[in-house]
Amino acid sequence: MIGETTNIISLSEIFSLRNIIIYLIVINLIGFYMMWSDKRRAKWGKWRIPENTLFIVTALGGGIGTIAGMYTFRHKTKKLKFTIGLPTILILEIVLVIYLQFM
Questions:
Q1: Are the beta carbons of 28 and 65 closer than 8 angstroms?
Q2: Considering the entire predicted model, what is its pTM?
């Protein structure tokens, strides 16, 4: 058709380094905020964020933020599930990225 343009976006444009960095910053801020929020709710005896949700955010790339929040707010630091689980997820993600980069 005359005058029509197609707006096709390639995967390389969607997954550009800039967009990946923005995503990682946002997901880590979310993880940090969730640890702060859950600690605050625990102090006040309110509804809590499910533990699985914290692990999901970590698995989605928010490991640095959730771990930083865990130690900054001293939240979940007595639970081995968190003190071992969150860093393990982060390390596995880093190893996966390195493997895929040099594959």
A1: yes
A2: 0.87
Can you tell me the distance from the alpha carbon of 50 to that of 95, in angstroms, rounded to the nearest whole number? 27
Long-range contacts of 77-82 (CB under 8 A, 24+ apart): 81/51, 82/51, 82/54
Rounded-to-10 torsion of CA 57, 81, 37, 92 = -30
User: What distances in angstroms separate CA 76 from CA 1, 20, 65, 93, one per listed residue?
Assistant: 60, 28, 14, 21
User: Are the C-beta atoms of residues 58 and 31 closer than 8 Å to each other?
Assistant: yes
> What would the pLDDT profile of 43-81 be if each residue is shown by its tens digit?
999 999 999 999 999 999 999 999 999 999 999 999 999
Tell me how crowded residue 31 is: count the other CB atoms within 10 A of its CB.
26
For residue 43, give the amino acid letter.
K
